[in-house]
Amino acid sequence: MAFTFERINYQEIRRMTFAATNIIVGLLILIYFGGSLVICNEDIPFCNKRLEELKNDVKDWRRKCLNGTVHVPNSSCCAAENEQNQHRMKMQTQLCFYKGPYPEPYLFINDDSGIHAIDLLTDDKTVVIPGLKKNYGMAIDKAEMKIYFRNGNSISRANFDGTSVEVFLQNVEVRKITIDWIGRKMIWVSQFPDGRVNVMYLDGKGKRVVTKAGFYNWDIAVDPTVG
Length: 227
Known about the structure:
The chain has helices at 10-32, 45-65, 76-96, and strands at residues 66-67, 70-73, 106-110, 114-119, 125-130, 138-141, 146-150, 154-159, 166-170, 174-180, 185-190, 197-201, 208-209. It is of the alpha+beta class and 227 residues long. The chain folds into 2 domains: 45-97; 106-212, Neuraminidase. The strands form 4 sheets. The protein has a 4-stranded antiparallel β-sheet, with no helix packed on it. The protein has a 4-stranded antiparallel β-sheet with strand order 10-11-12-13, with no helix packed on it. A hairpin with a 5-residue loop joins strand 4 and strand 5 (125-130). The termini are far apart.
């Protein structure tokens, strides 16, 4: 009698289990609300409870798994637990309909390839807007929950979760961008050798130049408390 053995793919089993859990919990949400799709996490009672449980688990993980200020797991078990917490955050985000890439707080980072978000609880990272060109500038409008960013020779904007991408201003060479969220203006520095500071309202009106060409501004900022 011959016996054959197959190696168990634990990673595939975990992936299938994770996907099945998403489907089951999603169905429970729709059943709970009578089949109506909710539009934000405040409408789902257990989302806050699940998030608080995750926060407590991450707090315990940091206490037992991090060596002082070094943010590196001190064992393979701790690394696996951290990965599991990140999977839980992904599930939380997918099922609870947050307006951003994660429940707050999170951090946006831009590089030449796109804009990424990092969850500041579990350090999970996700791509929000991929495939950008010459992405030298980025700014956020907290009031409208919009990201403004350079893409080639234009400035575009999108929701915090990466949806509703649209071109805001065309034919511009941008080095730095900042948002006056109180005065509802965007201010940007043109690429060298121009280097001028420009300003325009976020409704697309009132575009004007503030400084002369060749001023060589390296950066720009707005007082977030008064605009």
